Automatic annotation (TrEMBL):
One GO MF term: oxidoreductase activity
Spans through the membrane: none
Keywords (A to Z) from UniProt: Oxidoreductase
Any Pfam family matching the protein: Ring_hydroxyl_B
Annotated protein name in UniProt: 3-phenylpropionate/cinnamic acid dioxygenase small subunit
GO biological process, one term: 3-phenylpropionate catabolic process
Species of provenance: Rhodococcus pyridinivorans
PANTHER family assigned to the protein according to its UniProt record, in alphabetical order: 3-PHENYLPROPIONATE_CINNAMIC ACID DIOXYGENASE SUBUNIT BETA, BLR3401 PROTEIN
Similarity remark: Belongs to the bacterial ring-hydroxylating dioxygenase beta subunit family.
């Protein structure tokens, strides 16, 4: 049986990358965030809380490298509604569990709370996250998949003005 312990060094590397991603997003360092993904990495926010077939399902976001690059451009240009006076955010990511571990990757599940402040209003969003992190020998770990399952994904979701 494979040890899926949080003390495994690869698991700790994966958790550190998830936290580094959260820090980059809170700092609005979108260029660094974009570079954290593999070339074929997917960033997805499904509407159906139970789906794993993201390509055939309706999603709030389903970004490959090209779409992530365009999203980052919009966030940095300041012309889109999501970029104008972008919300300030603080993320808390916890409750890590290991779903799978191989010699080259780790898949983690976790819980995320995003606290956002924009236009004198606070908003709190909760989500279950899944990250698949891939490793290379040089320590250049990358995100191959990030799934954000908002707890209210089937309800109306207002424009957030930040990346989840």
């Amino acid at each position: 049986m494979t040890d899926l312990s949080l003390t495994d060094p690869r698991v700790l590397r994966a958790i550190e990358l998830v936290w580094k991603e959260a820090e980059a997003l809170d700092a609005k360092d979108y260029k660094s965030w974009e570079q954290m993904y593999t070339d074929d990495g997917i960033y997805v926010i499904p509407i159906d809380p139970d789906t794993d077939d993201f390509a055939s399902s309706l999603n709030m976001v389903y970004d490959d490298a090209r779409m992530r690059r365009l999203r980052v451009q919009r966030m940095l240009q300041g012309y889109s509604p999501s970029a104008v006076a972008a919300a300030r955010t603080v993320r808390v990511i916890s409750r890590f569990t290991v779903q799978e571990r191989t010699d080259t990757s780790v898949t983690l599940r976790s819980a995320q709370i995003v606290n956002a402040f924009k236009r004198n209003e606070f908003l709190t969003l909760g989500a279950d996250l899944t990250h698949t992190i891939v490793f290379d020998d040089e320590g250049d770990d990358r995100i191959a998949l990030k799934v954000i399952r908002l707890i209210d994904s089937e309800d109306a979701v207002s424009a957030s003005g930040y990346l989840l």
